[in-house]
Structures are given as C-alpha cells and as structure tokens.
C-alpha cells in the first residue's frame, strides 16, 4: 500500500512539474506579445504533422492563415521550440535580403558527422563555409554553361516524346497518363546526365538502380519521417543516418566512377562532373577543400534539390495548361512564332514571355517547396520592438504568402497575366527560397521546366478531363505529389 501511495505521489508530482514546465515554454510568444494558435501540451502546434495527418507545408500555411490579415508575423511551436512565421512582404525582404547577415543559416539539414554528404551539402551548410562554396559553385551554372546544357535536355526530351507517343490511345486519338510520372522520368534522365555524367533512359526502364535510388530518397513512409526530422527537428538528425546510408553510398560510387573515368580519358562533356574535376584539381582553401565527400555532396545536392521539386513544377504547369486551353493555345502560338523551325537556344527561350508568365503563375499556386527558413545568429530587433532571440528560427510560408488575398485578388485562380505586376520578381524568387540563400540552381531549374513544356506543347494538345479524379486532400509529408492525370493528343 505504501508503495502504491509513493508511486502515485511521484507520478502526480512528475506530471505537475512537466505541466508547469510545458505551460511556461508554450507561453514564450504570449509573454512577448506575439499571437500564436492554441497548442498541444507535448507536441505544440505540430501534432498533426508528427502523426502524418498533415504535411508541414499545409500546417504552416494553416497557422499563417489563422493570423489577422494585417499581422506581420505569428508565433508557433514544434514541441516546445518557439518559431516565427513572417507574413509581411517588406518584413520578408528585410530579413531574407537586406539583413541577411543576421540570418545567414538554415535550420534545415543534416548536422551529423555520420552523414558527411548531407553535412557538406550547400543546402544546409552554415556560414562562412556556405559563402565560399557558393562562390565556387556559381560559375558551374553560368549562362554559357546553361546554354551548353540545352542540347542534352532536348535529347532527353526526345525520349519523353517517344514515351508519350507510345501510350495507348482511345478512338478519338487521346492518351491518358499521370504527368508527374512523365516529368519524374524526364528529370531523372536530365539530372543523371548533367550532374553525374551518366545516361539513364528511364522512359525505357524505370527500374534501374539510379531510378530506384531516387524513389527511395523521396518517397515512402520512412522518407517522410526523415524529411520531418531534417527540416523541423534537426537536433535529432542522428536518427536518420541509418536510413540514408545506402542511397549515399550509391551516389558516392557513381560519382567517383564518372570522375575517375573522366580524369583518365581526359574528355569534357560540359556537365557538373567537368566542373567538379576542375575544383578538385584547383587551389584549395582551408575553409572547405573540394575532395572526398565534399565533392560528392555538391552534385548530390543539386540532384536531391532538383529531382522532386522540378518534376512537380513541370507536372503542375502541364496540369494548369490542361485546365486552361486558351493559355495553352497562346503558348503554342508564341512558340511557333518565336522558334519557327529554328534551333532552340537560350535567347529564344528567354524571348517566350508568356511561357515565363505561365511558369511563374503555376509556381505561385503550387510552390514545390511550400516553406523556407532562416535562423538568427544574434538577437535581432524588429521595428515593432519584438526581439527575435539568437537561434530562434523564422519561416516563410511560401504557399500562404503566394495565396494571401491581401496581396492577390482571386488568389486561387490561375491568371498568368497577374505576373506582369511589379512584384513578379519577388514571387519568382520566393518560389526558390528568396535572398542570397535562395536556390543556386534557380536559372537551371527554370530552364529545365521551360524546355520540357516547349517540347510537349509543340507536339501535343493537353486536356485535363480524364477518368481519374484529382484528390487535392492527399497528405504528403513535404512536397505536393498528388496524382495529376491529363490527356494528350498529337498535334497535326
């Protein structure tokens, strides 16, 4: 009996102490005069995400939308960790661009010494190494380098056209297929060629080791857990290492196979392997030496950052055009007028202004990465008097900002002409992370997207009505990947 009383008392005291601790931690924003939504005593505002009932992007957009229209920010919690969502354009620009020196790092990423490829990725690398590596990698994706990559993209596009042409057709000549599968195969081929220097025709065989490894990285229940840990609970990233060891070893092996072959035979292909070879043989800096896994990390980062996001972007552009045949016709006519049988070049692509507007509007509605983050290196005072304390992360809800009725009339509608507004560049850059820390491969990604759209629209009419229903309520852990079925019909 005494033992029962003892354990009961200990349990009550322990719970009372935890309750008091949790309530204090979860009053962080209230004590600073910042609004925040109701919280769970243990999970904070992230219970639905931890239970995989909502994606992190959707949850952060939900919190964004729960604020009053004119609130410049709103607080929230992951477990008991306080975080801040920015809601005002000027404040976003101030923190992400103007005062970047206060917010140079991301919370996202691997910090585990057991994951050297993730640790040395430019996506998550902290200052000052990040700036040095970015400056070294920027020449890899210059305008001239991108021009040289267009023929490789076109070559992969031929396989894509051949795949669509061989799809079963009905009596009216229409073929039905899921466009994200098509765009994923196309991106696999393009990125395998341009980042690792290998040819993978996934339209003929989608079961190669390279294709399977890409699927392993981005899909499946366990990968969803890994993304949540790396983006929102990076202090726990040691838990993910056993699950990414096999893909990391695979990318490491194919990278060094390509590097060693290229160095031994002495030929150049105009891809990232050439650039990595030049960095390997160039003058090294103690800040960051381009050797070993430091080299492997960079093409791996480009592949991992570009595979799923760019595939989703292409799929949504095609899906949006399938819903809007009037815009599809405008793009087709623009392509025919500008190209008129000419070889596809960077200058001609840049001259397709309506295509550019369509891509940016589709990215506004369906940003492949719905959130971006930064973390303070020192206390930072806002004009409102709020002090963002050192190491408190700030987030931008990209889909929340992009669809805020404060900034857009009819924000859910696909209206390419709206991107002619003065804020076009803001929304274009927001889709890629905004500011100095934005995606280094933004121009590269946009080029891949546009080349794919040009190739398909030049040869096929797209229509959205199919026998498959589009389920917009499907839960996806990080990126949006609902099934997007469209119909294709060969143009005369």
TrEMBL record:
Cofactors named for this entry: heme
Record bears the keyword Protein biosynthesis: no
UniProt cross-references to SUPFAM superfamilies, sorted A to Z: Cytochrome P450
Subcellular location per the Swiss-Prot or TrEMBL entry: Endoplasmic reticulum membrane; Microsome membrane
Residues binding heme, per UniProt: 439
The protein's name in its UniProt record: Cytochrome P450
Pfam families listed in its UniProt record: p450 (PF00067)
UniProt entry tagged with the keyword Iron: yes
Residue ranges of the TM segments: 6-22, 444-463
Keywords: Endoplasmic reticulum, Heme, Iron, Membrane, Metal-binding, Microsome, Monooxygenase, Oxidoreductase, Transmembrane, Transmembrane helix
An example Gene Ontology molecular-function term: monooxygenase activity
GO CC annotations, alphabetized: endoplasmic reticulum membrane
Mode of membrane association: Peripheral membrane protein
Protein family: Belongs to the cytochrome P450 family.
